[in-house]
Amino acid sequence: MMRSSKQTTVVSLLILFLAGSVFCLQVSNYTQCKRQAFSSDSFVCICTESYCDGFDNQEAKPLTDDNFAVYTSSKDGARFELNIGQTSPHSGENDDSILFQVDESQKYQEIIGFGGAFTDAATINIKNLSNILQDHLINSYYSPTGIEYSTGRIPMASCDFSTRIYTYDDVPVDFNLSRFKLASEDLVYKIPVIKTALSRSKKEVKLFGSPWSAPAWMKTSNSTVGGELIGVAGNNYHKTWAAYFVKFLDAYKKEGVELWGVTVENEPIAGYVPGYKFQCMGFDGATERDFVKSDLGPALEQAGYSDVKLMIFDDNRITLPGFTDKVLRDKDAAKYVSGVAVHWYEDFILPASFLSDLHNSHPEYFILGTEACTGFSFLETRGPVLGSWERGERYSHSIIEDFQHWVAGWTDWNLALNMEGGPNWVKNFVDSPIIVDSEDNVFYKQPMYYHLGHFSKFVLPGSFRIDMTSSSTVNELEYVAFLLPDGSKCVVILNRSKNDIKITINIGRGYINGEIKSSSIQTYLWP
What we know:
By secondary structure, the protein is of the alpha/beta class. The chain is 26% helix and 25% strand.
């Protein structure tokens, strides 16, 4: 299912071979963060027109076979702090260090990538900045001087992170979709920002669309809030809704933006929740199965979009097992499906082992994390908390846990929000890795941004998770290892404890002896 990534890797290696060169892993320093504190807890990194922190690729350093590199970010001040060390013939385990074994012969899922969502809110906030600041922000996410995101989610029409409710065809009973057209939000905000991100990236960026609701006239609720599609799969409403996906893909393609995938419906269970306040549409496993096999799958195939990755579910873990089984155990529906999209909001209810159960039952389908944010719950401070290190730790904890249970990629929610955590028409304010202060024409990089970057910058699409074990049965560290497309290795280790912990990584030809400070995250790389 990941043909393009494998082909890219093969071509890259072939070019190196034909050029008579030997690949040498290179690392670059990160320019110093300009700190701004909003509390005593931690700090943000402020970006102004005159300065924004980033990777200095002009000063890239090659790593030899006896070198390793480690990038560190910490609550007490480090942001992608680079140190290059020498591997040792001796283990440091006698110094009370935790010994890790990395085994590249045990390969698991192939990595799709990391990214965020080009919502109306995010792109409005970006466009509210000066042109120079817009460049800084987009580069911070997608360019080689930034954390090099490789995925991007696009809401199909409005969601709660819009300033108004709209769809692409609000004309009743327009079954031919003759009135279908993109909104000004697409043409003025989303598509220009997406195209700039694509132009700055040196990687393939996998873009995927997700709908929140069909037009009200297609639904039992006669509203974009709540309800289901009228009737049953195969009828005129379902056929028209499937054709709407094709129209969306066509319209974006015409504007120069081609999509890698689509999800069937954002959080389909929300359509059945009484009192739910913003755009949603109900599917359960059976109705999504029938829509995919009778309508959406055939429509995409007939329109020449059979290569677009169709993802089911796109919801929280709590309903994962029964829902996905209903779809994937039906061969007529499953033949159109490439993967399962999951959200993180109810992870505390069901353990990550449910993801492994999904993989074990249906190993031929990838699992992609498609939405996450902090500041959304009544159990925490709503909206942005500038400088919260703990919110960054929640991200990296979730990514490590998900990847240890077969998730192949992780996509954050809004790329950028304002100081309130919006705009959001229903006032569902949340937090984001980048917060924009358009009044002062600056933006702030939250600790979440750096936690995400410890994965997105270094764990390239086409990498594979590999086996990593620890000598300690009582371990305060969280960790995951990867084999990169060029054969290099990457290990990410998170220390959420209040203790500094010594570590040793057995890399086969020697040992990496190091220490991970309290409240910090590290990425280790070696050729």
